[in-house]
Amino acid sequence: VLGLGILQKDENKIECASNSIKEVFQLVSQGDGFYSDGSFIQHNKIPYTGAYGNVLINGIGQILALTQGSPFEMDNQSVSNFVNIVESSFLPLIYQGTMLPSVNGRSISRAPKDDQMGCSTMYNLLTVAALAPVDVQKKLQEAVKYWIQENPDYYLNNPRNYNSLQLVLSLLADNTISGQKPPFIGTKNFSSMDRFVQSTPNYLLNLSLYSNRIYSFEAGNGENKHGWHTGDGMLYLYNNDGVQFGSSYWPTVDPYRLPGTTVDTVALQDEASYFTTITSLETWVGGVASENQAVMGMSLNKEGTKNNGILLPMNLRAKKSWFILDNQTIALGAGISGDTTADIETIVDNRLLNTTYHYQLLSSTGLINTRSEKEKMDWLLLQSNQQKVSIGYIFPTAQEIRLQSEKRTGTYAAINTAFPSDTTYTGDYWKFIINHGKNPINASYAYVIFPGATPDILKNYNKNKDLKILSNTASIQAVQMDKVGYLGINFWESSGGTIAGITSDKPISFMKQTKAKEILYTISDPTQSNETVHIHLPQTSQNILSMSEGISFDEVTHSFIVDFSGSAGQAKQIVLGSY
């Protein structure tokens, strides 16, 4: 409409186009669009920031740029709102210039184009930055420069258009923009799309979950034929190895054994129906995040799962929790129950190896030379000649792990017939699997993922007894690490529970961070049921420094009353003095 209006010199059409885009970035509370927490949904219940979200900001950015300085330009407040949405929604979900796969929907199954994956996001962010207020403009430009300076020649030699080239040239020539600091460090819970991200200076961790609010995956139009388990608690760990979740990953990875998932490994048919989308019967999915620490959880329930529209007899259930600290993540699973003709497994990891590095696999029992074995161990180290690429796995209680090394080949044509490619990809993998068997009843697991670990760190981890698993049941999962002042709890029951001096009368996710002069309590309602929760803390007699809106303190019962109405899974916080 805008182009037609310009060509026809029709002011009404131009004004109509300019005004209509305001509706696109108005925040929503259900259905398609941007949410207040930065989530972006399309097709009603699919996280799609990286695909449709990118297309959207490209279109809006072009309209805003074309009308800027004209009588039809958008008002400053609306432009500012749009820019803030882009900053909140995109920056945490980019790794080395590429959008995370967990927010790309069915497009993860598309063969990569000749251009570098993620480049369109960089061009889009530069377009938005040119429209932004000065403070946000600099932040976006710093972010883009941080990412593109790793390979500036690519962006200069393969511009999307002339304007993109000019923006890149200007950015690279601007010495006031250094691009030296990572654009996002910390944690973020996208509760409206069941996604979580932690970004540290050394690695990025991303969780892909689903609930009654969000689909487990999307297949359709001949795309994403093997996406069945991508929402079952998949844990993406990026550690600068250069290959993980890249172009060779999706056509070669074992789709039944994605890292972090607990799965019924029964064989499934390629998704061939027009569109496949599946929600869970469960509401308890989400958690809390503060600074660089978090607690996340997922009530996994595979009842109601369909394959090509046919209801499957899956009945796997599990309570899955992740306790996320600055340099490690503790994964707990409990209440793992179900029946299957195959096996129910928890995938500790399924790691694609960069063959330019030298890897060896060490365990608490010694060097592992075989390509496949099962043994009981206290720890495992996928060791590289580049320490930052090494990953340690610790088992607080000695755990039998199935280890499997395999070379896998595949094509994108096998998982996507709409955007096919017969190019054959090859990937070398190490799988680490906990097998719960065919008929587990209340099975459990516990392991720690420690990026950048060394043999000494792993040998001493359990000896130091810093980690205390206070509970790992289907009612409460809780972890404490006194040395860093961390306590994380997921209360699963409708009646809440009591542990470590913390009492809740409803299901919540809870984190305590003890600092030199204050104690931070971060609480959320992952069920998003708008409940009022009563919480008793052991330190309620201390000074209350601050409380989020919707929290009050009852002097009679010495409990905090937390009203989660309208919080949509986002956390509230209580800060107490510790002096």
Top keywords for this entry?
12-stranded antiparallel beta sheet, globular, Chondroitinase Ac, Chain A, domain 3, 10 helices, 579 residues, Glycosyltransferase, alpha+beta, 3 domains, Beta-galactosidase, Chain A, domain 5
What does this structure look like?
- This protein is an alpha+beta fold.
- The protein has 3 domains: 172 residues, Alpha/alpha barrel (Glycosyltransferase), CATH 1.50.10.100; 277 residues, Distorted Sandwich (Beta-galactosidase, Chain A, domain 5); 111 residues, Sandwich (Chondroitinase Ac, Chain A, domain 3).
- Helices cover 19% and strands 36% of the residues.
- Strand 13 and strand 14 form a beta hairpin.
- The radius of gyration is 24 Å and the shape is globular.
- The N and C termini lie far apart (63 Å).
- The mean pLDDT is 94.
Question: Mind sketching the topology for me?
Answer:
Blueprint (H helix, E strand, L loop, with lengths): L1 H7 L2 H10 L12 E2 L5 E3 L3 E2 L1 H19 L8 H15 L3 E2 L2 E2 L19 H11 L4 H15 L3 H6 L4 H12 L12 E5 L4 E5 L4 E5 L9 E3 L13 E5 L10 H4 L9 E3 L10 E3 L7 E6 L2 E9 L4 E2 L2 E2 L5 E8 L4 E9 L6 E9 L6 E5 L2 E3 L3 E13 L6 E20 L14 E13 L5 E9 L3 H10 L2 E6 L3 E6 L4 E6 L5 E3 L2 E3 L4 E6 L3 E7 L7 E5 L7 E4 L3 E4 L4 E5 L8 E6 L2
Antiparallel strand pairs: 1-2, 2-3, 4-5, 6-7, 7-8, 8-10, 9-12, 11-19, 13-14, 14-17, 15-16, 17-18, 18-25, 19-24, 20-21, 20-22, 22-23, 23-24, 23-25, 26-27, 27-28, 28-31, 29-30, 30-33, 31-32, 32-37, 33-36, 34-37, 35-36
